[in-house]
Amino acid sequence: MSETWTFVCASPELLPGEMRTAFDEVTGAPILVLNLDGELYALEDICSHEDFELSAGTLDPDAGTIECVLHGAKFDVRDGRALCAPAYEPVAKFPVKREHDGVWTRDDRD
């Protein structure tokens, strides 16, 4: 588990409906940070159906979902749960915070 927070971007660079990617400085995990109406969420940037980056997909800010471009699996960005086939497993959700005018995240898995 990483105790080190990874800088994603300056807070003004992540507006509602936008997303940014980062790699955890300790574990190397790819992380996708999304802004839904001012609330920040962070998920592992890998579709649980097939090893493909979710950040290449489409964010639906109204529904709070992201769709993988590879096979159309959808995930709830608030908790990472899979919403439709072909994905049945959730994607990992990570902590995210605003601090010192920046957005920070980390891989907190054991």
Describe what this molecule looks like in 3D.
With 110 residues, the protein is mostly beta strands. It has one domain: Rieske [2Fe-2S] iron-sulphur domain (Rieske Iron-sulfur Protein, 3-layer Sandwich), CATH 2.102.10. It contains no helices and ten strands. The strands form three sheets. It has a four-stranded antiparallel β-sheet with strand order 2-3-4-8, with no helix packed on it. A three-stranded antiparallel β-sheet has the order 1-10-9, with no helix packed on it. A three-stranded antiparallel β-sheet has the order 5-6-7, with no helix packed on it. It is globular and about 40 Å long. It comes from Luteimonas terricola. It holds the Pfam family Rieske. This is Benzene 1,2-dioxygenase ferredoxin.
Structural class: mainly beta
Biggest pleated sheet: 4 strands, antiparallel
How does the overall form come out from the CA principal axes?
globular
What's the CATH topology name?
Rieske Iron-sulfur Protein
Radius of gyration, in Å, reads: 13 Å
Protein name: Benzene 1,2-dioxygenase ferredoxin
Keywords: 2Fe-2S, Iron, Iron-sulfur, Metal-binding
Pfam families: Rieske
Domain Rieske: 6-105
